[in-house]
Amino acid sequence: MRNRQTDPVALAAARAGFSVATGYRIEHDPRLPSQKSQPRERRRPDPLADIFETEVVPMLKATPGLRTVAIFEEMLRRHPDLDPGVRRTLERRVRAWRAVHGPEQDVIFRQRHEPGHMGLSDFTDMAELGVAVAGQPLAHRLYHFRLVWSGFEHAHVVLGGESFVALATGLQDALWALGGSPREHRSDSLSAAFHNLDADAKADQTRRYEALCAHYGMTASRNNRGIAHENGSIESAHGHLKNAIRDAMLLRGSTDFDTLEEYRRFVAELISRRNRRQAARIDAERRALRALPDQRTGDYEETIVTVTSSGGFALRKVFYTVPSRLIGHRLRVRLYDDRLDLFIGATPLMTLPRGRAEPSGKRGHVVNYRHVIHSLRQKPGALLNLVYRAQLFPRDAYRLTFERLLQDLPERAAWALAHERGCEAELAEVLTEHLDDNRLPDAAALRQRFAPDPATLPEVVVQLAPLSSYDDLLSGEAA
Predict the structure, then answer these.
(1) How far apart are the first and last CA of the chain?
(2) Tens digits of residue pLDDT in 263-298
(3) Superfamily of domain 118-286 in the CATH hierarchy
């Protein structure tokens, strides 16, 4: 059109790269093609014309959160002759109506983060991955820590719930692996840890959490309960971490691990590889972190228990056996996520694996047969109705043998032999062979096979030489 101001149509069209015919058409009608097109009209009747404004819109106004699929099912109920194929049409129509008339939605505000400012903690359930240890499903969570700016991650396998002990253990492991602490630490509301706690217990948990953060020079904060996007920098990372663990187990070929420690090493190695990809950024953020204190703070709960005449103590709806010499004593227990450390006064006694009550609320048991076997040999009848009999057997072979030999072999003999001779694993293999061959083991034969019996060891008499013999040896006078 600029060329047309000075040149004829043919020349202006040539200079613009048009044909002469196109030039004359533009000369007569300068509108763009999009301006000349007629609005597309409906080619077939609107299947929702009779119901959308009269029935659907009132439902949307009365219940703004109603799902479109529920509206569709209700329309099918009210109008049986309605074509089921109009579902997509209804969904598009509802979406368009809500864009104009619907309620306001929450807005996610993207944040600008500084190096060394914030670290985040959260727990995520791992049940969907189907992890097993020694063939048994492992009910567990992952404690997940992440630095917002660099993406540094740390994960810790948690066997219990979202407790303060699990948080303290995982957080301190993460900070010491990182080599510094951020200025602020944010966790979720720890609703599982606060569930069913009274006001004093909740206040105590809050004080302990704030004291933990203060020990590392961090400001403690929590996001609002039920508002997941306030912890979005780690909530979204949960899914990425789970997918990475799932892929790694597929490449491994199995989700079953021989021991819990093997699974923990597997997770730690995966996290290490993910952190190496962000090594430059993590190193840059380390320079902005605060220095760590001289030592860690407590990541356990401490309580006092009394060993009863049952040869153990109850703690958190779990019964633990201990050596019977401790009956009547008060023990100091340090309660960790995966273990109990026992002290008598300030003297360390032993470490026990931590047990959990059953989901039904039934009491759990952590039993070591070595603690009670000497009493069971004297009172064999107590075994028949013992409340923790199922947990008493060290291996399945002993339990199956007991069931088979309840009438033929004194029930205390097999694992008493394992205890006395220190042959628990070897004896279990022999018992398994007998069970596979449908044979009953013989107690006397087993004792002879796993000889010597300490009670039948020969007495050895040592004759001491006179001291003068050594003088003879030194002087060379001995014959």
Answers:
(1) 134
(2) 999 999 999 999 999 999 999 999 999 999 999 988
(3) Ribonuclease H-like superfamily/Ribonuclease H (3.30.420.10)
